Amino acid sequence: MVASHGEVPLRGRAAELADVRESLEAVRSEGGSILVVRGAAGAGRSRLLAEARRMADAMGIRSLSGSADPHSRAVPLAPIMEALLNGPDPVLEPDALPAALFTSADHRFLLLQTMRQQLEQASLQVPLLLTFDDLQWADAATLLAMRSLPRRLAQRPLVWMFAVRDGAMTDALRTTLDQLAAAGAHTITLKPLETSSVEAITHDVLGDDVDESVRRLAERAADRPLLLVELLRGVAEKHTAGPTGDDLESLGGLPERFRDLVARTVERLPDRVRRTVQIAAVVGPRFTVRQLEALLDEPASALLEPLRSAIAEDLIVAHADHFTFRHDLVREAIVANLPADLVRGLRRQVVDADLRAGRPLPEAATLLAAVALPGDAEAVSLLREAALMVAPSDPAAGADLSVRALELTSQRAPEWADLVTETIQLLLAAGRAGPAAALAEQSLEVPLGPEAEARVRLGGALVGLQFAFVDAVRHCRTALELRNLSPSLRADLLAVLALATALDGDPEAAGEFIAPAMSAARACDNTRAEAVTVCVGSIVDLHRGDWRTALAGADAAVDLSKRVEVAHRLSDPEIWRAVALAGVGRLDDALAVTEPQQRQAGVGAGLAVTRLWSATRSRLLLEAGRPAEARAAAEEALAMVDEIGHGDFAAVTAICALGRVAVLTGDEEALATAERNAHVMQASKSTSVRNAGAWLAALVAASDGDPGRAIASLTDGSARYSDSGPWRCHPLDVADVPWFVRVALQAGQHDFAERAAATAERRSESNPDMPLFCAVGAHARGLLLQDHEELARAASLYEAAQRPLARAAALEDAGNAAARHDRAEAVRLLETAMRIADEAGAQRDAARVRSALRELGVYRRRSTRPCTGQGWQALTPSELEVVRLIARGATNRAAAERLYVSPHTVSTHLKHAFTKLGVTSRLELARIALTRAQSNVVP
Asked: I want to staple 833 with a disulfide (CB 3.0 to 4.6 A). Which of 199, 583, 807, 811 is the partner?
């Protein structure tokens, strides 16, 4: 009698089972562990997971299981929800989970928190085994959870087992596996069976009387035990030695003989059973009676007998609310034996049936994208809708769906240009700027009508907003010259033109576009264009010193943008709001804006959003007197920048932050890098990038002790700018004005110093209730007059404005001015400045102040208190994460993958950590981290 699948013992996996048993036995006493099972299709991954669950049940360990589905990648967290929501006593209660938790990246963070808490609580009652099959098909949110949950629950009695099919590796999956390895995962690789194991399985299935040709065939299937069993069972059912020969040819990933064997097995089924099995195979790894009803056009009652027969033939397995094939290899072989056009057509019907039955569009979108043919207008419409639905929580998935919709759309279709712009926006949100830029340029090579060309140029302008403002301006101006544009499109173009002009360093010129842009937006009720235009008005108002109107405008722009779907927004006013708050001295409020945005970026938001917020946060942290954290944030932003050059707004912001940190700390290597970057930026075609490069070059020159070169970098052709200051480009930070005054005086350029101080005083007089503007005015005036009392007043105002390093600079200037006539006051002021600089980790500033104290006969050592410059408390969050991973044995590359940064960034963090902790090797680092952990202090 031929053995059924359940009766065939698991052979040749003794070592693998021993690894599983060891983890399960240790879970009660030693805490959690992670096992990753890898192997080819049919190597027995699912069987090993099933054996692990049986083993766990025998040990009193609760097992939970889930599996990924290639047709449900657009469903966030589906495998985990399957594991946690199923069973008589689910870990998560479905009724307690609002639907909103599944649709938003920000809410998904809360969902992950809930999962962690509920798993932790469940594991306190009984140890858990969680198995997840076919991780190669998991969606991005599931992979994120797999990277996060095992690490955060490492001390709890949970064993995690993940099965991954070889040859189906994506970048996201590779990152996940590397991070699991860094967290201590043990990999079980399912290798081909030994000859003795193959012989044992052959005898299990066929008995002792086995033909030599069958043995040869079995040996050639040693790498796929499930295939081996199915081949042997096919031989047994035919009561023959089966096919012979030396080759197991492959076709569609499956041996031809196996496909033939499956085909013969299916052919011998009764007609209705065969048809039911073939249609079910086309549906996918799992299917429902409702899907079969729609495709076979038969009621459920008529399907009962065919399904029972298929179960009896051991082809399919019944579950509570769905069916699966006993082996997916068999299903794949059934599909491979059907005509490709038939499969495609049936799967298209599956999508339609699923949607009619109420299946959420994102769940059906992946299959629709795979089977739709060019010219399928309905499929294009559905894919576009699905892309916009998933984009807020998974920009990469949204971009993929939109790209596919564009591929299916004829360039002559009226919606083609709209779809190009839509796809560009989604690609940008997903951090794929290169493809976005290429799509914009390639689309303009196609003969287009005015409206279509203008829409494509709008897409090009959106690329320019991130990477080259001058290109955004060019695209908008060219498009606006075209005739007969729709009112809404004209409003979009005017708004983006105004924004690009402002960002390119000319707020006054941008102000000229505000009235026509606002009029156009309101005339056609274009909310997204209105939001951008209001944001531009806020930028112009702050540039002119009207901070109240600027902040009100920033708030209004944010409120307007919330009325527009994320994928349809032209910009993110929230970033400008954070910058505006910092620009008027409300740094705590500005940083508070960035924190939830950073959290959202970590659980699903696109790479572009993450990069922009990291760069913005680096600027704000620097202004808040936290240079080490600013450096970490800037490095994170630069690690995500595409190779498009320095035109990227995020890159410029991060590069300038790193340059300022180098000036504060005296890092010679970083200063040299900043100088090189400044030269590149000054050659840019973008005005704003050139201006930023000029200020960066000036900061480096002054740091090198060359004030003349610093002033020359900023004042070439400055006579035209006498009304706004002596510089040819506006300062990057309002607190740069006193720095300019100081350096101009050092260079003997008293006229420049006077004009800069007059600019600061005018802004101060216009905003008497603004501590930051008043501080800058008092500081500039105090420097010009060498008035230590005015400089001390500036320091007090800086404290109210939350600018510690600017306060230290004012105190240093005040101490130097007081030294001429009041030594005691000078010492007091300088010692306070030194303490602030030391605490911030501004080593060069602190060293300069100590030098000034020595000239007054006062000698002070560098502070030894734990601060930003020394000790465990000195480590930034990014440095701390690197230390934790390296101390556990991770390589720099593994740590980089885990933290989404480059290996160079990890090396930099490690170098900083070595300096702060006073160690010189990874071994020393691991030793002190272990000592700290044993003292119950988490490093």
From this structure: 811
3-class SS letters over 512-549: HHHHHHHHHHHHCCCHHHHHHHHHHHHHHHHHCCCHHH
DSSP assignment string, 565-613: -GGG-S--HHHHHHHHHHHTT-HHHHHHHHHHHHHHHTTT--HHHHHHH
The rounded radius of gyration (Å) of the Cα atoms in the chain is 33
pLDDT range class, residue 794, cuts 50, 70, 90: very high
Please name the residue that has the structure tokens 């802004």.
763
Annotate 83-118 with three-state secondary structure: HHHCCCCCCCCHHHCCHHHHCCHHHHHHHHHHHHHH
3-state secondary structure of 483: coil
Spatial separation of the C-alpha atoms in residues 663 and 657, rounded to whole Å:
10
What is the spatial distance between Cα 464 and Cα 476, in angstroms, rounded to a whole number? 10
Q: What is the pTM of this model?
A: 0.63
Residue-wise pLDDT for 683-712, tens only, equals 888 888 888 899 999 999 999 999 999 999
Q: If you average pLDDT over every residue of the chain, what do you get?
A: 83
317-364 per-position pLDDT tens digit: 898 889 998 777 788 889 989 998 888 888 888 888 888 888 889 888
Q: 229-233, 336-340, 535-539, 774-778: lowest mean pLDDT where?
A: 229-233
Here the tokens at position 874 are 């000195």
Cα angle 325, 326, 330 (rounded to 5 degrees) comes to 70
Q: What is the identity of the amino acid at 346?
A: L
pLDDT number for residue 245: 37
Residues linked to residue 189 through DSSP beta bridges, in sequence order: 38
Instruction: Determine the Cα–Cα distance for residues 388 and 381; give it in Å rounded to an integer.
Output: 11
DSSP for 385-416, please give it: HHHHHHTTT-HHHHHHHHHHHHHTS-TTSTTH
Rounding to the nearest 10 degrees, give the CA dihedral for residues 425, 426, 431, 437: -50
CA nearest neighbour of 631 among 595, 605, 667? 667
User: Cα-flanking dihedrals φ and ψ of residue 85, to 5°?
Assistant: -100, -15
Helices (H) and strands (E) in the chain, counts: 45, 10
- The SS3 assignment for 661 reads helix
